[in-house]
Write a structure and sequence with these properties.
Distance between the termini: 49 Å
Number of helices: 17
Structural class: alpha+beta
Shape: globular
Strand content: 15-25%
CATH class of the largest domain: Mainly Beta
CATH topology of the largest domain: Beta-galactosidase, Chain A, domain 5
CATH architecture of the largest domain: Distorted Sandwich
Largest sheet: 9 strands, antiparallel
Number of domains: 3
Radius of gyration: 27 Å
Length: 714
């Protein structure tokens, strides 16, 4: 592995990393200030010290083209030049994206720099109260810098450069930003290095590349010294400690190690250890690609799939760094990973909130534009075009404007992309929808059989139902992260517990939490015209059961049937919760009506084995000591509602019947016509459900269309 010229340091892999002795390091820690024009200043001694180090280690024989990351000053291969970028923002979606960047950059002109105590609408107030460098404020500070730098690059207006430099100076100032680390991560080692370190180093170094030609030598050295002091040297100092983010293969790795690799690419010859940062990151980032499933499955919950962007931006940066010689977005798992996200995005564009996610969060779509541009994939381009707006309103990510290439056509998903898919790796997620309308579809059913490597909940077997663009049978998503001291008791917070999900629970026992406590997809079937079904064996997730098998049918457009076959060693108490978007009440016969803003869902839960059932509405409450977040404050009590069915037995078959009705449709009730048959009138005709032995079938009596599934033995 190559390293910087003049550097005696060599390493064969991350396990043998040592902080290399470097001339002139560590650098002095100067106080920083800004002029009235926003120019960043630092001490003369620090500038001289860094200048000497750079000249000794990286003599400037062939200076880098600037800018050279994401945009190039001259045309290079298929890379996008500054002039091409300026042309692309003159019309169409490119112009609308640019207008959003420009509008927000203009709004920043007279704002004070962001600090960890800053309050703004997108940020949870608790972090400002604690002056915590959380994700939101670090992202916002980085985006303010990048917006201003990009607008300056495109317009030459010095007012925007001044905005960038003011925020940069603030980030370097220990009084304003004492830590580039979240308070919740300080226990992980010293010096503190975490996701925030990677985020800020990445954004500052990218802005440095874009602003480079306009900066004085003093300003350049100040920026390089600040990034070095606050990020690069703490990072290198941590490596011999073998922190978990060096060897794990999830978002911490790609954010911290990948982020410092991107820092090296952007700083280039202007930092003596740039090549070392790249050499450390590149093999690890390539190894991270191997962590994806065979169909692009991400190894964390889908709510964290936005972290795919970290690898996309790394390899996009590397493509520019190598002057278009390496385009790993084409050969890697990225197109498949994007399709995995597509299948787990519900209209009008929210990620399915399995695991550590939050309901109603827009899908992170900006990296779709980068993958579409690199692969010329019209399906991914369509998804970006139709789903970027909600995320942009919330996050204002400049990458969407940078990555969008208007020369890639957008091809509608309808007809070209299956309406459902079953993924067999990590979370083992499944989805089925009636169509690919980006804003509303009659019904979407999502489910899962597994548990992810990171940011997972005890949700093996989960089933959720959306109707006409809104959730009806819901996943509660996550609360504010609990303290790390509760790591081994995380299920005491109901969001993380099996009791906080739409799955059967046995004997009052929590699900198993060992790596082998995984369900599996036994079988699945998808029919573009009529619907889908799948069978999940979740036995391994439970303690002391013979078998638990869940069969799900989605009969187009809005009929969903779930049969739970539960076989135990001896009679025990069994509960089944369905979490609803409203606070509806069940009848004594297990019927309930869920009312959304537009759609309604008629439901009923019955016992096919004839045992007695009881039904009631309940709500979740955080209970001390498991009622505080990781900053020590009380969790918000949302009193989230559910319908719970209870029974006792050793052989139990629970049948849950659902019918979604859209705006203007009448909602009828499920009628039992014999002990194994139920019917309901829908806008498409009368639908009959038959549950005979282990076979489950659904038929529209008016059209004759039917679907049949068999609950296969485990």
């Amino acid at each position: 592995m190559s390293t910087c010229p003049g550097n005696e340091y060599r390493q064969s892999g991350p396990k043998t990393l040592k902080t290399p002795p470097q001339p002139g390091y560590p650098l002095p820690r100067p106080a920083l200030s800004t002029t009235s024009a926003g120019e960043v200043r630092t001490s003369t001694s620090a500038i001289c010290h860094l200048t000497s180090a750079i000249e000794r280690v990286l003599p400037r024989q062939n200076p880098l083209m600037r800018p050279h990351i994401y945009l190039t000053s001259d045309k290079v291969g298929q890379l996008r030049s500054v002039e091409e970028f300026k042309t692309g923002i003159q019309s169409g979606l490119g112009h609308r994206l640019w207008t959003g960047v420009l509008t927000r950059a203009e709004a920043d002109l007279h704002k004070d720099p962001l600090t960890p105590s800053s309050e703004f609408p997108e940020r949870e107030a608790i972090h400002a109260r604690h002056s915590n460098a959380d994700w939101t404020v670090c992202f916002a500070a980085g985006q303010r810098i990048l917006r201003a730098a990009l607008v300056f690059l495109a317009t030459g207006d010095d007012a925007f450069k001044a905005v960038a430099l003011r925020q940069i100076g603030c980030l370097f100032d220990l009084k304003d930003w004492p830590l580039w680390c979240d308070h919740a991560h300080l226990h992980q080692g010293s010096p503190p290095v975490d996701l925030r370190t990677g985020m800020l180093c990445t954004d500052l170094s990218l802005a440095y590349d874009w602003l480079h030609s306009s900066l004085s030598e003093s300003e350049r050295l100040t920026m390089v010294e600040g990034i070095d002091r606050r990020g690069i040297q703490p990072y290198l100092e941590r490596l011999p400690q073998k922190p978990f983010w060096l060897t794990s293969r999830h978002n911490w790795t790609t954010c911290v190690v990948g982020g410092l690799g991107k820092t090296g690419m952007a700083l280039g010859e202007d930092h003596p250890q740039s090549r070392e940062l790249i050499d450390i990151a590149l093999p690890i980032m390539r190894d991270c690609l191997k962590a994806y499933g065979p169909e692009g499955e991400f190894n964390e919950s889908v709510g964290y799939a936005g972290a795919i962007q970290l690898l996309v931006t790394f390899f996009t940066s590397y493509r520019y760094h190598t002057r278009d010689r390496e385009n790993e977005l084409v050969s890697g798992p990225f197109p498949d990973a994007c399709r995995w996200v597509m299948h787990l995005t519900s209209p009008p564009g929210n990620t399915v909130p399995f695991g550590d996610a939050h309901r109603g969060r827009p899908v992170a779509a900006q990296y779709f534009a980068a993958v579409a541009a690199a692969t010329r994939d019209p399906v991914l381009q369509w998804f970006f075009v139709h789903h970027h707006e909600a995320e942009q309103k919330m996050r204002h990510d400049v990458h969407a404007t940078l990555f969008y290439d208007d020369t890639v056509p957008a091809e509608p998903l309808e007809g070209s992309t299956p309406l459902g898919h079953a993924y067999h790796t990590y979370g083992k997620c499944i989805s089925s929808r009636t169509d690919w309308n980006p804003t509303t579809t009659a019904c979407m059913v999502t489910s899962k059989a597994g548990r992810e490597v990171n940011h997972a909940h005890n949700d093996v077997g989960q089933v959720c139902i959306d109707g006409y663009g809104e959730p009806l049978i819901i996943d509660l998503g996550s609360c504010l992260y609990p303290s790390h001291e509760f790591h081994d008791r995380i299920h005491e917070f109901y969001n993380y517990s099996g009791f906080g999900h739409n799955i059967p629970m046995v004997g009052g026992r929590e699900l198993r939490m060992t790596p082998d406590a995984q369900g599996r997809i036994v079988d699945s079937f998808f029919d573009r015209d009529n619907g889908a079904w799948w069978v999940l064996d979740t036995t391994a997730a439970y303690h002391d059961v013979r078998s638990i098998v869940r069969t799900v049918i989605h009969f187009f457009p809005g009929i969903v049937i779930v049969m739970d076959r539960i076989d135990l060693e001896h009679p025990e108490g069994i509960t089944l919760k369905w979490h609803t978007v409203d606070r509806c009440e069940p009848t004594d016969h297990g019927a309930f009506l869920v009312q959304g803003q537009r759609a309604r869902l008629t439901a009923r839960v019955v016992n096919l084995t004839g045992g007695r059932l009881s039904h009631h509405r309940g709500q979740h409450v955080y209970k001390a000591p498991y009622d505080r977040n990781r900053l020590g404050e009380l969790q918000t009590q949302k009193n989230e509602s559910f319908i719970e069915t209870q029974t006792t037995g050793s052989t139990v078959r629970l049948l849950s019947l659902f019918s979604v009705a859209g705006p203007g449709e009448e909602s009828s009730l499920w009628q039992e016509t014999n002990p194994a048959r139920w019917t309901i009138k829908t806008g498409q005709g009368t639908v009959r459900v038959d549950a005979i032995s282990e076979q489950l079938s659904v038929r529209n009596l008016n059209t004759g269309v039917s679907l049949t599934a068999t609950a296969c033995p485990p």
